[in-house]
């Protein structure tokens, strides 16, 4: 059973990101403030849910939330500031969209930077402990997946519709065969063999 609140503040927001470990596409974050009376038996960490369940929950969260925000930080910026900073930036950008602004922020994971002097707490595996973080994880994942499906049309040979930019064997094979696109993160090790020589 997921917990409602970490703090005793009514306007507590949960935030989480998706796409940190991908080789292509943005890192996407969401922030959600749920009302006191929100409950949903299915809602859980998005990684524990089927794709179908995530898409079913997306409108339920959007309609049920007091307020929510979603933000992408794209590959050029990831290459520029690194993936950790990009993840935190995406969270900040999603929190900026919230109206009313949160009185407390709970963050999935163990790294965050202060946002406008709002008190916060990082919680490892927070998406499987707190409702608002689980809701944020579902929105971050579904919005990012929809974006990857869209750019899949432009470069179908990488099969992003299926792998969403994660380093699957098939994705790496396509990089080996076709090279990289404008959507790939150049600062990532795109091929494990980059350091090996064929002798």
From TrEMBL:
A GO molecular function held by the record: RNA-DNA hybrid ribonuclease activity
Record domain RNase H type-2: where = 10-199
Spell out the PROSITE patterns in the cross-references.
Answer: RNASE_H_2
Can you tell me which residues bind a divalent metal cation?
A: 16-17, 108
- Where is it located? Cytoplasm
Instruction: Name the InterPro entries for this protein.
Output: RNase_HII (IPR022898), RNase_HII/HIII (IPR001352), RNase_HII/HIII_dom (IPR024567), RNaseH-like_sf (IPR012337), RNaseH_sf (IPR036397)
Catalytic activity field:
Endonucleolytic cleavage to 5'-phosphomonoester
- Report which superkingdom the organism of origin falls in: Bacteria
* Main enzyme class: hydrolase
Q: How is the cofactor bound?
A: Manganese or magnesium. Binds 1 divalent metal ion per monomer in the absence of substrate. May bind a second metal ion after substrate binding.
Hydrolase recorded as keyword: yes
Keywords, sorted A to Z:
Cytoplasm, Endonuclease, Hydrolase, Manganese, Metal-binding, Nuclease
Pfam families associated with the record: RNase_HII
Question: Which cofactors go with this protein?
Answer: Mn(2+); Mg(2+)
Which E.C. number(s) belong to this protein? 3.1.26.4
Give the function comment from the record: Endonuclease that specifically degrades the RNA of RNA-DNA hybrids.
Instruction: Give the protein family.
Output: Belongs to the RNase HII family.
| UniProt protein name | Ribonuclease HII
